[in-house]
UniProtKB/TrEMBL annotation:
Species of provenance: Pontibacillus litoralis JSM 072002
Binding-site residues for Mn(2+) 2, renumbered to this chain: 11, 77, 99, 102
Subcellular location: Cytoplasm
Gene giving rise to this polypeptide: mntR
The name this protein goes by in its record: HTH-type transcriptional regulator MntR
Keyword entries, A-Z: Activator, Cytoplasm, DNA-binding, Manganese, Metal-binding, Repressor, Transcription, Transcription regulation
Record note on quaternary structure: Homodimer.
Amino acid sequence: MPTPSMEDYIEQIYILIEDKGYARVSDIAENLQVHPSSVTKMVQKLDKDEYLNYEKYRGLILTSKGKKVGKRLVYRHDLLEQFLEVIGVDEENIYNDVEGIEHHLSWNSIDRIGDLVQFFETNPDYIKELRSIQQKNEEQMEK
């Protein structure tokens, strides 16, 4: 099982490969705002744990295990963004909130959140009702 830090790297590598077709140490470092030397150390660990294959100066590719984990991590991140949007979290707070909570929820909780998001998507009237409740609560807080 990958650590939260490993998950961040796998997720970022997966996204880069999906978007650009490759992931370089420099791109990973830039996107995660860490030093390239830190990326190299983590990539070597991920290689040892069979999430990817890394050859110095040649690049890296995700293994089938790494792809599976990466896809699931991207799904989790996107789902949590959807969930926070549905429940009315301000857009400017969503990314940081997701980053703060995504590693602290079980996969069972993630799946239940997915069910709830799906419920709201198929029943948009409940979103309107939720917004109405939120507006009333905000008005009461201002009093």
